Amino acid sequence: MEAVMSRDFVKRTLLLAVAALALAVSGAARAADDLAWDPAVTRGVLPNGMAYFIMKNAKPEKRVEFRLLVRAGSVHETDAQQGIAHFIEHMGFNGTEHFAAGELIEYFESVGVEFGPDTNAYTSFDHTMYMLSLPVEPEPLEKGLLAMRDYAGGMLFLPEEVEKEKGVVLEELRLGRDMHTRIIEKALGIALKGSRYAERMPIGKKENIEAFDPALCKEFYAANYRPDNMAFVAVGDIDPKDMEQKIKDTFGTLPRPDQDFELTVFKDVPHDDLYAGIVTDRELPLSMIFVTYTREPSPVRTQNDYRSQLAETLAVNIYNKRLEEITLSGNAPFKEAYGSADWSMKGFDVVTAYAQTDMKKERAALERLMTEIERMRRHGALEQELEEVKSDMAESLRVAVAEKDKRESAPLAGNIAMSWFNGEPFLEVTAEKALFDNLRDSISIDDIRRAIEDVFAPVNMAALMILPEFQKSLYKEKDIVAAVEAASGADIPAYARQEAVKTTDYSKLVPGKIADRKEFRDTGVTAVTFDNGLRVLIKPTDFQEDEILFRGFAPGGVLHETPSDRGVGRLAIDAWTTGGTAELDSVQIGRLMSGKSISIHAMGRENFSLGGATVNKDFEETLQWLRDYLDTPGYRDEAVAKIKSLTIDMIKQSEADQTGSFRLEMTRQLCPGHPMSYMPSVEQVERITPDQLRAAHRLATAPANMEFTFVGNLDVEKTIALTARYLGSLPARDAAALAPDIMRCDMPEGLTKRVIRRGIEPRTQIAVLFAAPPVDSPDAASTDELG
What we know:
Elements: H1 14-19, E1 41-45, E2 51-56, E3 63-70, H2 84-91, H3 103-110, H4 117-120, E4 121-123, E5 128-135, H5 138-153, H6 159-175, H7 179-191, H8 206-211, H9 214-224, E6 230-236, H10 240-251, E7 275-281, E8 287-295, H11 303-327, E9 334-342, E10 349-357, H12 362-379, H13 383-402, H14 409-422, H15 429-440, H16 445-455, E11 461-468, H17 477-489, E12 514-520, E13 525-530, E14 535-540, E15 548-555, H18 568-574, H19 586-592, E16 598-603, E17 607-614, H20 619-631, H21 637-656, H22 658-670, H23 682-687, H24 690-700, E18 707-712, H25 716-726, H26 780-786
Parallel strand pairs: 2-6, 7-11, 14-18
Antiparallel strand pairs: 1-2, 3-5, 3-6, 4-5, 8-10, 8-11, 9-10, 12-13, 13-14, 15-17, 15-18, 16-17
Helix pairs in contact: 2-9, 5-10, 11-13, 11-16, 12-16, 12-17, 13-15, 18-24, 21-22
């Protein structure tokens, strides 16, 4: 019932676009490789040149995932063809050798498969992927393979269907013209100046799309959709030998062209000078900094390759931990900051440093990003830092090995396809863990320093300020250059920190007594209520080998807000874990959790909720942290200031963005006056204090108001004993009461019209809203059928 800007906004700008620039590589085997493919993957190449990969995987049962990857995207288009790779992807659903236009969608939806060009395919700069998730039954399998075969070599490009689809794609182009797209296009034009990636957005150009005809489609299709430029992947609850024969029978009929295929690999244009640029947009309400580096690719094919990338990964993780610490220091020039390295590309690797900041702090934010890079270049890292990131990686691999038989087929299929695409082996997880364990101790502080020097080498470098348009006069490109140079010439001391120590003594806790216990045998749930009023639901499962999921919630949040304190409940939730505990801040807590599988995060709007995941060996410590967050939350000034600033950015974005303001107004019209229908104003957020947040937290999280659910590979009696000790022992206090009908939403009577004028692109969004009966009403089912 609310309209908000996604916190992933920044990833949808330059970082998202750059991360998508994976360049195609040859799928041929390389004799020098000493990293082996997972032996569970059956691999082969058909006589016509098509590569195929098959893996048996039982989750989900009786399902299979198909992927067809074509090494063709927008960078492979001529000037006249711009947008045609994406257009051809659409045409795969509009008439092929074995399926008339619309027949594919009709059939697959009839067997419960979501189907359509936006669901089952995508086109990027350098590849196109077709995807199918099917039941393992004879007819769907046969038709699924035939559909994939037709994408690969049986599209018809009927004139009437080409004309119809042009309208669909032009509408997609129009609807996609928003602030995010404009920023991406401008930023790529600076960061990757001179490369195809700065000139070839996958959606294409309006004038090109309008001119597409069957002949042009067939020209691109014949040049790129050929067996020796494709790979087919099948992962699921299947017999690999049987599937291999089906693949040979289905795809082996595709003819191999007379001439061998030579894939064109497009690289970034090398440059020694810094590309400095300022990107502005009228609808952008916040400021961002991007620093990008491109370099020669470093595919992981040997143990030495793996070791080099491991050192780089550890180095970037240390850099990110330092940036996180700065954001919570109280005097940071940015609100969020991190580094990201992408090694998946054949033509070039991309490394990015990013920060989100306030107006007039952009230069300081850029200088600080560069200063922290320079600090690591000169002084390296602390042994404690290195051990922490090693421990985190070791624990991730330990869990991956424990859960390897419970992996979902869909991500496996995608990862196998991209491994072929990038010319790297798909590693068996146990073998990767063994390799990591063997290399772990050999990675030294000197390796981290060298990795930073390599990852952030000051060549092929671009630095961008992305600003609201009204700020464009604040800076010139020379200011960006000066900020980068200032860091390299500054006197920068080595990093120092205080070690985190937790002194909380849990030994004197008196476990809560069980006031009520119920067994729900039909669902396998055990429900326990302790004498402080807190309720626990326990559900043992074997979906994962060693995973425990949990969520605790207390009704409240924004529901307790009044017009005079709008935003307090929202921020009390958002700043809950960010503020740490009374004893430790969130950075110190992160250090103490290094090497452990403990994930705890706050969430919710109409309730205070703590959710996360852990494993059996860390379950008791997880409960200790949950107790601390409930009993002694931190709400530190620095953390609250950070959350307030991010919330203000979100509000400004929602008000400036067409989609955000549209959704927000819909909720206001649906339930006028209801707390869930409103965003706080910037002024209201600015007035909120940490004490208000502590009071809102205490009001909502009385034990009698709390319910926790634990699901996973756990023992019921042990779980009861541990939750009694750490949650059942929480001091009882009065619970905040909510009106019984607090979630009731009454639409206004009569016809209400509202017109919102936002945005600079020629696009319109329309919604017609009707009141519906409550979900428990006899008429609810009939209403659902209408939808």
